[in-house]
Amino acid sequence: MTTPPVIDLIDLRFAWQDGPTLLDIPEFRVDTGERVFLRGPSGSGKSTLLGLIAGVLEPQSGKVEVLGHDMTALSGPKRDALRADRLGVIFQMFNLVPYLSLVQNVTLPCRFSSSRREAAGGDSKLNDEAVRLLSRLGLSGDRLLARPVTELSVGQQQRVAVARALIGGPDLIIADEPTSALDADARDRFIELLNEEAGRSGSALLFVSHDASLAGHFDRSVDLSEINRAKGGV
Ligand SMILES: Nc1ncnc2c1ncn2[C@@H]1O[C@H](COP(=O)(O)OP(=O)(O)OP(=O)(O)O)[C@@H](O)[C@H]1O
């Protein structure tokens, strides 16, 4: 039996309410463990596409298959479970929980998914794994780890969000411009670490940015305009 693609989009169409067609994608796929860079200018629909892949948005037509599941056919709770079990999502706004510690923010997906918890080492090893990931991403030391997430710099908050996406080695990590707050050196190092950690767990990675200079870090680079026939964005 062949493994289904991690992401398989077929004849996908999406428009925001009363807006023109923003996305019209005949075909796009990402294979197991593949690390793909998706570039497009601001406003071209990258975040919208990630929302469709994560199952938080629904297309007007077409198929969004993620890890062999038709996202449009799954019930809301099943989509939530698939996301918690097998996806790591890094949003532009990070979505950190202000009243949780750094480590608790990182282990959050494991509270919603027992399989993710087991994959991260089980209850007894969960915090250690969060500390390991944070340390790999340059956040270590008791004083730093004890700080409220609201007091971290934007670059530090990004790293917490990345550690949260990586924990438990999900099959797919989708990342929305997670390097925008970093200088060039920090950004390159950061992408290398993200790649290394994704490689360690065999996670596929879909990384979107407007910054074409990042393309060399990935197995494959795709311009949104190459796969999208719609001209509704910019
Ligand atoms: N919730 C929404 N309701 C209506 N329109 C939206 C919504 N979110 C985004 N849009 C519109 O969809 C288009 C694409 O936005 P999107 O955020 O997907 O682009 P992007 O390529 O990710 O941009 P950026 O690089 O600036 O993040 C824009 O015209 C935007 O105004």
TrEMBL record:
It comes from the Bacteria. GO terms for cellular component: plasma membrane. Transmembrane segments: none annotated. Keywords: ATP-binding, Nucleotide-binding, Transport. Gene3D superfamilies: P-loop containing nucleotide triphosphate hydrolases (3.40.50.300). Residues 7-234 form the ABC transporter domain. GO terms for molecular function: ATP binding; ATP hydrolysis activity; transmembrane transporter activity. Pfam families: ABC_tran. CDD domains: ABC_MJ0796_LolCDE_FtsE. The keyword NAD does not apply. The keyword Nucleotide-binding applies. This is ABC transporter ATP-binding protein.
